[in-house]
Amino acid sequence: MQLLFLLLLLVGPYVILTGLSRWMGFKTAAMIRARIGISLFFGFTALGHFIRAEEMSAMLPPDVPYRLPIVYVTGILELLGATALWVPGLMRSTGKCLILMLVCFLPANIYSAIYRIDFGGHGAGPAYLLVRIPFQLFLMGWIYWATEQNWFEKKASGM
């Protein structure tokens, strides 16, 4: 259920603003519509890092030092990412950083699913990964597209 809510936060603004543009002539570029959702997504998830920090710290293996400070720092990074998407000249580098952060979060999500950490659906165990990993990959792709990344484009040769 939590992933469905997060998906709605992520793509809801895009869908709503697309509808407004078609029915009311309200024009907003597609990537701006997508970035609004990314900001809402990371703004919301960042709150969890402060409101439910203890539960989130349990998602890290016990031998990881400074688990609670890590949760707070990643919450701050998520808030910074949600905001920096709107700073001129920082959008693309912010997108890269958000994608890298999600890649770094993946081991904690896998650990918490395997060991049934009861937070945000992780208590479902390994089956949770069947949904969580594709969702996280979708999120990374959404960020890649919305922040105009071009990692896979061939560079034009000087011939």
Structure description:
- The longest helix has 24 residues, at 91-114.
- The protein has helices spanning 2-24, 30-51, 53-57, 67-84, 91-114, 129-146.
- The model has no long low-confidence stretch (mean pLDDT 92).
- The termini are far apart.
- It contains six helices and no strands.
- It is mainly alpha-helical.
Question: Summarize this, please?
Answer:
The chain has 159 residues and is mainly alpha-helical. The chain has helices at 2-24, 30-51, 53-57, 67-84, 91-114, 129-146.
Spell out the blueprint of helices and strands.
Layout: H1 2-24, H2 30-51, H3 53-57, H4 67-84, H5 91-114, H6 129-146
Helix pairs in contact: 1-2, 2-4, 2-6, 4-5, 5-6
Give the helices and strands as they follow along the chain: HHHHHH
Structural class: mainly alpha
- Summarize the amount of helix as a percent range: 55-70%
- Mean pLDDT comes to 92
Strand content is under 5%
Alpha-carbon Rg, integer: 17 Å
Task: Please provide the count of β strands.
Answer: 0
**Sheet of most strands:** none
- Principal-axis shape equals globular
Put simply, the count of helices is 6
Low-confidence stretches: none
Terminal Cα separation, in Å?
A: 53 Å
